[in-house]
């Protein structure tokens, strides 16, 4: 804290004050929170390198040898399903001369470095390294890929660089009751894509969390399906997450349980839960589908976003033409995302203006206030 500039210290002190006050008196965060390099560095050190982040769903890598790449702070990693069925996360950097090992996602029987072909087993053990017989004391056992803490919770993969972070199940325990009833582990992943948008990661987090903009920014897609009077927020602030619940009626194209769904009762059949696990994992979990975002800052002015869609199993099983449904659904949510991109890039530019001032929040922006609490806990 002592190395921080007086300006950043003042911004964080003010953040603490607003976060600790009531939502009815809260304003949006000041522009410095989105544009300061110092704040970004603090976020990387104290949040992204310490808290749990999610590269995606365990069901996205169902078979031994399936992998997907990700990164935590500056550390490239990959999640790999082992021959024993376990998901492990390993450093995506070769133990020879530090080449990146894997890109994107796929399936492999062995991880072979594209530079000099050092080869690793699916659990990260170095299995082969050619022409090393004349190297003093060379022992393959000394050169395994470092592993990164990995836990699977309600179908999600979570990873952290912090060996002392509380287990995910403990941190998210109060969310378990809400989420477990949907059975995410059985949802069928149908789409995943990575994009880069020109905005600070927090503008996108805030945008995803609040429903206030839906009838306006999303009027052409899902905006009219949002009954504001059905919105429910947590009755207290939780340190590691926030959420909202809302209902969908028959006007809505998505959001209601299929007739074959036997696990959801009563109003749960048309209820969506929308958790945000701080700092950067958020999803819309509906009885018939889910879609998620997982964000990583790329400097102050860009964000790497991973976007995924999965279908509820009984709904998916009932489709006559699953490919057509997937194409249609992906196109629909791409339109929704494009509507969001326009606004989150717009507020990023707007917040740089000399006369930009953070304004008061609506009760529908409850989660923005919760995010401020989390940021104040970590940074202030
Ligand atoms: S850097 Fe990987 S084998 Fe040389
Ligand atoms: Fe949106």
Descriptive account of the structure:
It is globular, with a radius of gyration of 22 Å. The chain has ten helices and 16 strands. The protein folds into two domains: 6-50 and 170-379, Naphthalene 1,2-dioxygenase Alpha Subunit, Chain A, domain 1 (Alpha-Beta Complex), CATH 3.90.380; 53-160, Rieske Iron-sulfur Protein (3-layer Sandwich). By secondary structure, the protein is an alpha+beta fold. 27% of the residues lie in helices and 25% in strands. The mean pLDDT is 96. Helix 1 crosses helix 10 and helix 6 packs across helix 9. It binds FE2/S2 (inorganic) cluster and fe (ii) ion. Residues 207, 213, 217-218, 340 line the site of fe (ii) ion (FE2).
SSE map:
Layout lengths: L5 H15 L11 H4 L1 H12 L4 E5 L8 E7 L2 E7 L5 E5 L13 E3 L3 E2 L6 E2 L5 E3 L18 E7 L2 E5 L7 H4 L1 H8 L7 E10 L3 H9 L4 H4 L23 E7 L23 E7 L3 E5 L3 E10 L3 E10 L1 H5 L4 H29 L15 H14 L1
Antiparallel strand pairs: 1-10, 2-3, 2-5, 3-4, 4-9, 6-7, 7-8, 9-10, 11-16, 12-13, 13-14, 14-15, 15-16
Helix pairs in contact: 1-10, 6-9
The structure holds FE2/S2 (inorganic) cluster and fe (ii) ion.
Structure described in brief:
With 380 residues, the chain is an alpha+beta fold.
Shape: globular
| Biggest beta-sheet profile | 7 strands, antiparallel
Question: Nearest-angstrom radius of gyration?
Answer: 22 Å
Average pLDDT rating: 96
Helix content: 25-40%
SS class: alpha+beta
CATH-assigned homologous superfamily of the largest domain:
Naphthalene 1,2-dioxygenase Alpha Subunit, Chain A, domain 1
Order of helices and strands: HHHEEEEEEEEEEHHEHHEEEEEHHH
Looking at the chains present, what oligomeric state does this protein adopt?
single chain
The CATH architecture of the largest domain comes to: Alpha-Beta Complex
* Each distinct ligand: FE2/S2 (inorganic) cluster, fe (ii) ion
